[in-house]
Amino acid sequence: MTIKNDILIRIAIVYFVLLLVGVAIIVKILTIQVVEGGELREKAKKITYRDIIVEANRGDILAADGRVLATSIPYYELRMDLRAAGLTDSIFKANIDSLAICLSKFFGDRSWYSYRSELNNARKYAKNKRYYPIAPRKVNYIELKEISKFPILRFGPNKGGFIPVQVNRRILPHKSLCARTIGKVGEGGGRVGIEKAMDWALRGKDGLRVHSRIPGNNWVEVKSMNKVEPEDGFDVLTTIDVQLQDVAEAALRKHLAGHGAGHGCAIVMEVATGDIKAIANLRRNEDGTYDEVYNYAVGESTEPGSTMKTATLIALLEEGNINLNDTIDTGDGKLALWDHVVSDSKIGGHGKITVKEVFEVSSNVGVIKLVQKVFKGREKDFVNKLYELNLNKPTGFIIPGEVKPQIRYPGDKGWSGLSMPMMSIGYEVRLTPLQMLTFYNAIANNGRMVKPRLVKALLRHGQVVESYSPEVIQSAICSNSTLRKVREVLEGVVENGTAKNLRNPRYKIAGKTGTAQIAMGKSGYRKGNVINYQASFVGYFPAEDPKYSCIVVVNSPSNSVYYGNLVAGPIFKEISDKVYATSPEWFTELKGDGLVELPQSKSGHISSLSYVFKELDLPFKKAKSTSWVQTKRDSTQVVPIPLKYPKNLVPRVIGMGLRDAIFQLESRGLKVAFNGYGTVRSQSVLPGSRVVKGSTVYLEMTKKFD
Fold first, then answer.
1. Cα–Cα 20 to 30 A to 520, which of 48, 266, 463, 576?
2. 270 and 175: one domain?
3. Distance between terminal CA atoms of the chain?
4. What stretches in the chain show pLDDT beneath 70?
């Protein structure tokens, strides 16, 4: 083989290898472009771009008058990118001590050298710690502005690596007030209460931002790409009255503590609309305090006891065979039913009384005898009457967790010969406080049963977007004739019966007491010598023209006092008294010429007195040019009488307020000592005496300090 041929062979081999490499490159290019192109482009996009979810602002929950019950406030997690492009070693080392001192002083949780050591280590090993937390807690906006001025952090995200991350926190401006009804927010939205029920409206719609990677591993927003603005949630306008809620909770807490009760609830409802104005739920803690931890008003069904007797009365009256003036012999207050004995609370019984009195004094024996007289052998008819009152159906309340009522039907599991008699007095049935109140509210509302309403409207920027009208569950629960008789009986309960302690001269209350033993599982209603009771009162006011209905249920009061009129009744009355006192439409307008007698006035400076009487629109006689006056009243006006004392004589300050008296005396060089407050009743130095400068005048006031 010649040298020339050898060279040609070698060139051919190199050419062939290069050709193969070229073909391979072309094949790879085509594979990348055609076969793998779509997938690789998506990967590149993810590396180069990322979507940032922009959280929508959660809507507020508002009271009926617009006051905020729940709102979201921005808080911030404080983090650092300890490998930020602009955060050089020289900047870090020159400022780390100052930053550590500032953080330690601000948060007060540990020493400054602990902060310094932690940040030094974090920077040293910052490969996987480019989002390092530097604060022990989240901070509010005002705190963030202050922290943003700290060394290193004041240089911003690129040069200082400072990354504050906004995290909204849900707060209740009124603290624990109505807290359980308002509810809580967790990951994923509302967990309980209104927060959960209206989560779909409150949460809003999150937005979207596209960010692009730039040198230094930083990300900036790409404004030209797909951008979706977040849509804030609606504000939810509730029916809650903050003042009534406060009253209900305070009254409930005070009386629960006084009776050592396990838990209790109170609900106030507007009769015509079904609006829930207040709903309080309290449970005793181990230390004896009370907190809202569970919504007993909605989620706990119990045997109601005697408050169920009103439904029994309607069933009896609707049959048309019973009149309120009919009599029934309750005997000695004991009635044997198979192996069970029913007793009345009055020792020795009530004897022979009218039907009206049976329900007014809440005679168990009388009610059972009446039910047996009318419905014995017709148990289905009795239960059907209860079903016609809608007592077997939930109210459909907006807050999740409402328990379905339990009212057995003849033939159901557990039905026995005792069932109808016991159901008639509030046993072998289970209802929640809200369900029982809805029934009584219908009685107050002329037989019209309305659904309890907690949410009135959805708002956006103060404008109504959607409103929720009152819903009628049943247009008439009974005949008008029956309704009149039932309302007469419920008024009689307070005027003559078991709730006489709630009677007052200002307005009438109508309602029914309830005292029920609480079943304790397999032990029945008694465990050894222990019997747990539930005390309740449900009714409405003012009885002649009902505006509000209310129920109070107290669970496990002390054994010595457990009757509904003594435990639940006073809570009801405290609430109703407050409602009455703050409702001007219930007060009769004064007729005639106005005040019968003009008010008394302290002595004082003429200009001050003239101003006050003018503001009160009261007749005050104009005085001649003078400074200090005392006043007297005639039949038509208040008349000022000038007080004129030379500077060298002690003035008369009796009848003046303390401030004016001190001015008059000290302006003449006298010292003043006083006892009490109000109006000057006497002075130790007689008016008109010559002034001895530096001497003390002792003033006796009309009121004493405690």
1. 266
2. no
3. 133
4. 1, 4, 35-52, 126-130, 211-226, 520-530, 559, 587-599, 624-626, 634-635, 645, 705-706
- Asked whether the beta carbons of 300 and 518 are under 8 A apart, the reply is no
If phi > 0 it is left, if psi is from -120 to 50 it is alpha, else beta; for residue 658 that is alpha
Same domain flag for 265 and 212 = no
**Distance of alpha carbon 482 from alpha carbon 467, whole angstroms:** 35
57: which residues sit within 8 A by CB, 6+ positions away?
72, 168, 204, 230, 232, 233
Which among 672, 668, 661, 659 has a CA at the least distance from the CA of 690? 668
- pLDDT recorded at residue 270: 97
Query: Do residues 576 and 469 both lie within one domain?
Result: yes
Is the separation of the CB atoms in 280 and 265 below 8 Å? Answer: yes
Is residue 518, in this structure, part of any structural domain at all?
Answer: yes
Structure tokens at 517: 């033993």
226 and 276 share one domain? no
Q: For residue 225, is it within any domain?
A: yes
Same-domain status, 214 and 263: no
By DSSP bridging, strand 61-62 and strand 235-238 are: parallel
Do the domain assignments include residue 171? yes
Tokens representing residue 558 in the block:
């002390």
**What pLDDT is recorded for position 615?**
74
pLDDT of residue 234: 95
Nearest to 253, CA basis, from 573, 562, 554: 554
Instruction: Give the span between the Cα atoms of 311 and 425, in whole angstroms.
Output: 9
Which of 135, 28, 130 minimizes the C-alpha distance to 87?
Answer: 130
Q: Are residues 130 and 110 in the same domain?
A: yes
Q: Please tell me whether residues 131 and 160 are part of one structural domain.
A: yes
Q: 334 and 281: one domain?
A: yes
* Look-up of token digits 């967990």: 191
| pTM of structure | 0.74
Tally the domains of the chain.
4
Distance of alpha carbon 675 from the chain centroid: 45
Asked whether the beta carbons of 670 and 683 are under 8 A apart, the reply is: no
Q: Is the CA virtual torsion 569, 571, 576, 577 positive or negative?
A: positive
Q: According to the model, what pLDDT value does residue 42 have?
A: 62
- Of 256, 214, 232, 345, nearest in space to 553 by CA: 256
Residue type, 705: F
| Residue where a domain stops, chosen among 222, 238, 254 | 238
The range of the structural domain enclosing residue 632 comes to: 604-703
- Alpha-carbon torsion angle 539, 543, 545, 546, nearest 10: -10
Q: Judge whether 66 and 217 are in contact, CB under 8 Å.
A: no
- At position 701, the amino acid (one-letter code) is M
Please indicate, yes or no, if residue 530 is contained in any of the structural domains: yes
Closest CA to 520 of 329, 303, 237: 303
Q: Residue 15's pLDDT is what?
A: 78
Report the sign of the C-alpha dihedral through residues 27, 29, 31, 33, in that order: negative
What pLDDT score does 107 carry?
94
